[in-house]
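Exercise 4. Each item below gives a protein and its sequence. For each, produce the structure-token representation.

Item: Dipeptide epimerase (Hymenobacter qilianensis).
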Amino acid sequence: MLQTSIRSIEIFKLFLPLKEPFVISLGPIKEVQNVVIRLRTADGCTGYGECSPYMTINGESVDTCFAVAQYLARGLRGHDALDIAGCVAMMNRIIYANSSIKSAFDMALHDIAAQQAGLPLYAFLGGKSDKVLTTDMTVSLGPPQKMQADAIRFQRQGFPFIKVKLGETLEADVARIWAIREGIGPDHPLSIDANQGWHTAEAAIAVLQALAPYRIAHCEEPIARHLFMDLARVSAASPIPIMADESCGDEHDAARLIQLRACPQFNIKLGKSSGLHRARKIVDLGAAAGLTLQVGGFMESRLGMTAAAHLALTSDAIRHCDFDTPLMYAEDPVVGGIRYLAQGVIEVPQVPGLGAVMDEQYLRNAEKWVMG
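Answer:
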């Protein structure tokens, strides 16, 4: 048996409270429901991965991920952990889609491979630590007064970029942005995310044009993702640059959107792409096409967001980071990992591998499944 073959696989459910509900146009999130994967190789190397399934976006839940992970574990046990491409191909043969849980395995495999290479994950991926990463902070969907108060608080906390959840009626969304601009002034960088909430191209164009005076940097996913053929029309009519999110899951989606000249920006998430292996293909495609890229996530802890931060150091085309969800946690279950500094600056671990592990006290009390 190879020393780097996968000897044991552990699957954990992770439930954690948020400081307050996080609300988007697709519905509220009241607690974290994630899955953690821990892989061990024959030589004792340990890799960690995490996913945050989103039923309305990737069609997975904590329960489906926990079940599908067991199928994937049976296929991967005994395989060489350093053969990441082979492991990804095997997972795709075992089951179609299920990008969220596949991303957790992919993350753990990359953690092991980077440790074996003696490199921080970003360096193993070909990246450099020569740029400063900063995260935005997201204003949850709600009444204008509450959203204004949150935006003011985030500005005072030093976040250089504020992201605002929208996706309801034109009148309601314009009122929200008006209130926020009244609170934080006309110059603080601001982006918006409709999460498909405006549904049709016509509705989206109307809202985007109404928001033109408010100096918005970009808008994520304005229309229903199945209407991607209409995204180019929205982009052409919008005074605000469009960033594909839900409609850009994997590299095939990215290639399609580029061919359609659908939008100038992509938002890349490991839980949509199935992990780092395929996310890097989106980065390469987007960079070659001259697009501006953002790396974000779902509701991952600092463990999952650490992997995203490593990815963000791999390309100059990645200019935006949306790594704020761990700051919404009421508890922090991670040891090591990225650190949040003043002014929204993200400090990435410089140790071999991912540089983050789960606190044993959280795993000890979690529902789990073990093989090996």
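Check: DSSP finds 13 helices and 17 strands in the chain.
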